[in-house]
Amino acid sequence: MTLAENIELAFNAIWSNLLRAVLTLLIIAFGIMALVGILTSIDAIKSSMADNLASMGTNTFNVIRKGTGLGGGRHGRRRKVGDKITFKQAAAFKNMYNYPAMVSMSALGATSAVVKHLNVETDPTTVVYGADENYLDVAGYGLEAGRNITALESENGRNIVLIGSDVVKKLFPGFSVQNIPGKHVSVRNIQFLIVGVLKEKGSSMTFSGDKMIVVPLQTLRKYFGSQTNSFNLSVKVNDALSINPAMSEAEGVFRRVRKIKVNEASDFEMEKSDGLITLIVDNTATLQMAAVFIGLITLLGAAIGLMNIMLVSVTERTREIGISKSLGATRKIILVQFLVEAVVICQIGGLVGILFGILAGNWVTFMVGGAFVVPWGWIALGFTLCFVVGILSGIYPALKASKLDPIEALRYE
């Protein structure tokens, strides 16, 4: 018998016991869905975060409080958080850092602000950021319309604002982007003049640059000072190859700013954007291994269930096997027939599981602001696992069927 004929027989056997086959393949489908769904969501979130960090460039690094970076709580250990970076310290670093690089000062003002224009307002999810004239270049933002904040405006604290694309869509539906600069919005009943519109940047797992508004640093200190926990320092060097000496120079300068003695450890950290990407990849690798382990446990249960169903099928089809052997079917033909049936059930279940796994994974990703992905590698893994499960589950029932004595099988009632 050809492989095509065996597959046809497998489908006929599945159709004759449709409910039992469907229940079996659903067990497999749920196992594959859990596996592919978790891995898809991890991949999508990792890709989104890496894209956002990569937009800053490999020639950018940050000076942050100790214990507050992505590596601050690795392996379940909480690290002591260093003293916050004050405005005075950040400004001193910017003035003292003489390396050929661009330094940006910024700070978070609010994470749940409501921005209003006339009678229209945003959801209370808008992030208010304070920044200087270098922030857009260092952080990888572009302008869709209007202009950037100037150094004078950052120092004097004018009531001007740059707004993200999601804020524009909410407050100015149907407006041309070029006509938005010059209009006014209010935050906490404080009027701000829009001077620029940021280009769409996309979202990561925890932050959306499109739901952000940027005000001058001194303006942030004036209206949101009580919520400004610590200032951020970002440095963009001219050449990615010079980032390590630039970081060494920055560490020395900031140690002098913080008045840290020679024999004392630094109470701040330096983070490179490419280093953060590597850290994300390392951390998500553990999650991926855990997801594979969970999926394999589920598939083990499915394999046991499929083997039980195939043994029942062998028992029910004993006379059929006897008739086939009496007509010339060899042990190999019977063996392949039942093996193919087990593999077909597994592959159908795998196909259903992969489809729902991709949808479930990307739904989770959409909820946290990530981008849609098709995990071809995990799809291939899903089909491979289904093939292996089909072989392992079907081999014993197939051997049992192939070894049946045709005379005894024909007598079976």
Characterization of the model:
It is a single chain. By secondary structure, this protein is of the alpha+beta class. The protein folds into 2 domains: 3-52 and 279-411, no CATH class; 84-266, no CATH class. The chain contains 13 helices and 12 strands. The protein has helices at residues 3-16, 18-54, 87-96, 135-139, 151-156, 165-171, 217-224, 243-258, 273-316, 318-326, 331-367, 376-402, 406-411; strands at residues 60-65, 101-113, 115-117, 120-121, 126-131, 143-146, 160-163, 184-187, 190-198, 212-216, 231-237, 268-272. Strands 1, 2, 3, 4, 5, 6, 7, 8, 9, 10, 11 and 12 form a 12-stranded mixed sheet that branches. A hairpin with a 2-residue loop joins β3 (115-117) and β4. The protein is elongated and about 100 Å long. The relative contact order is 0.20. The model has no long low-confidence stretch (mean pLDDT 82).
Gross morphology is elongated
| Whole-number tally of structural domains | 2
- Give the averaged pLDDT, no decimals: 82
Could you list the spans in which at least 5 consecutive residues all have pLDDT below 50? Answer: none
Radius of gyration: 31 Å
The computed structural class is alpha+beta
In this structure, how is the largest beta sheet organized? 12 strands, mixed
Element order, helices and strands? HHEHEEEEHEHEHEEEHEHEHHHHH
Please give the number of β-strands. Answer: 12
